[in-house]
Amino acid sequence: MKVLANDGISPSGIKALEKGGFEVITTKVAQEQVANFINTNQVSVILVRSATKVRKDIIDNCPNLKIIGRGGVGMDNIDVAYAREKGIHVINTPASSSESVAELVFAHLFSGVRFLYDANRNMPLEGDTNFEGLKKAYANGIELRGKTLGIIGFGRIGQAVAKMALGLGMKVIASDKYVGEAVIRVDFYNGQFINVDIVTEPMEDLLKHSDFVTLHVPAQDGYVIGRDELNIMKDNVGIINAARGGVIDEVALVEALDEGKVLFAGLDVFENEPTPEIKLLMHPNISLTPHIGAATLEAQDRIGTELAEQIISLLKTEK
Question: Are strands 2-5 and 23-25 parallel, antiparallel or unpaired?
Fold first, then answer.
């Protein structure tokens, strides 16, 4: 059987699939050519990340398709329910990228509290002519230790963020419609660890009491953070979104940044991908990355291996 990894797959994933008797194709096929390529090459499995969309048209036109795999968590680029109605397996890797996304959240937090997003732009331009001026401009940094981090969405990634926050000495508030409490294990050297029980709280309480807010929710029909929610937050709050574009009202966010209500934002995802609004890209108080939350070598290895294991398990009786 053939597997089309249209958005790429790690060498470990390829090795595991080939060992299981599958042929792996890593050719990048344009979106409009995916269905034709699947049929022409008798592909049984398509693997995607966030770039390729597997909608009703592909599902209807590819009768030999047996599995649609998503390397990562969110599956909003796949018509999941429709595919399953047609007897196609839809799989993902919800646990593989949690730590990578969580670390990116803290990369943005550290960037925000120490002005790295701005310093990295201005040091190449003025570092040799205005060193003292820049030193003064970036002199009012903030420590994360002792501050309160509000985590909206307390699934695997939210809990990974909580673990890192506790390790830094931060206080954690979490809010989730479906998770009432969680035990966060923080590991130390020589097998030592502590367990911290976190009971989720109402969203309004989180917004009122957090110094920083990070979102870890799936794609929504409406905004999770809009003008009303921004108004509830503390002054000089920092906001991070490494979840999904469209969960923050970007217009309201820019207004809050311009008004000084929000101190900084860190954005890895955007409402309009792959063409984010220029006001976001040019804003002096936003730390920016191009949707790379799960893009670490370690996470991609775990994703590739986990997808391979699921595919082999599902199809081993059909080969």
Answer: parallel
| Residue 156 is a catalytic residue | no
Same fold, 2-93+297-316 and 97-288: yes
- Given 23, 273, 277, 309, the catalytic residue: 273
The domain spans of the chain are: 2-93+297-316, 97-288
Contact 223, 161 (CB under 8 A): no
Taking a C-beta distance cutoff of 8 angstroms, is the pair 198, 177 a contact? no
Q: For residue range 187-198, list pLDDT tens digits in order.
A: 999 999 999 999
Residue 61 C-alpha from the chain's centroid: 31
Catalytic residue among 244, 250, 283, 306: 244
Biggest alpha carbon–alpha carbon distance for the chain? 69
Rounded Cα–Cα distance for residues 237 and 209 (Å): 10
Interval 89-144: pLDDT, tens: 999 998 899 999 999 999 999 999 999 999 999 999 999 999 999 999 999 999 99
Using DSSP, state whether 59 is helix, strand or coil. helix
* Set 49, 216, 283, 291: catalytic member: 291
**Fold designation for 2-93+297-316:** Rossmann fold (3.40.50)
Q: Looking at residue 74, what is its pLDDT?
A: 83
What is the spatial distance between Cα 202 and Cα 176, in angstroms, rounded to a whole number?
8
**Global confidence as pTM:** 0.90
Instruction: Indicate the CATH number for domain 97-288.
Output: 3.40.50.720
Known catalytic residue: 291? yes
